[in-house]
Amino acid sequence: MMGYSGETEFAKFPAICEGKYVVNSNTVSFFSNECIWTAEFNWSLILNGDWKFTLRDNELILKNEIGDRYVLERN
Question: pLDDT for 9-59, tens place per residue?
Fold first, then answer.
């Protein structure tokens, strides 16, 4: 397992903090988001589970099975 950390332009949308992940072919699986999340937002926005990914220039595009799509930029 590898570690990740990140943040978003808008607080908790999506909710990215830090945790562990595994890559297998074109799927990344996020585990154990290590931040403490409060109850005042939709916890389905927390980055976890299995996501198909595409790399394009300095962007990582993630899509999950229910149609959520995130575009992450590398700084």
Answer: 777 766 778 889 999 999 999 986 778 777 887 777 777 899 999 999 999
Partners of residue 29 on adjacent β-strands: 22, 50
**Residue 12, domain extent:** 2-73
**SS (HEC) of 16-62:** CCEEEEEEECCEEEEECCCCCCCCCCCHHHECCEEEEEEEECCEEEE
How many domains does the chain contain in total? 1
Query: What is the dihedral sign for C-alpha 11, 36, 33, 44?
Result: negative
Looking at the DSSP bridge assignments, the partners of residue 61 are 54, 71
Sequence-distant (6+) residues with CB within 8 A of 35 are: 15, 17, 18
State the DSSP H helix or E strand holding residue 3, giving kind and residue range, or none if neither: strand 2-5
Tell me what pLDDT residue 29 has: 95
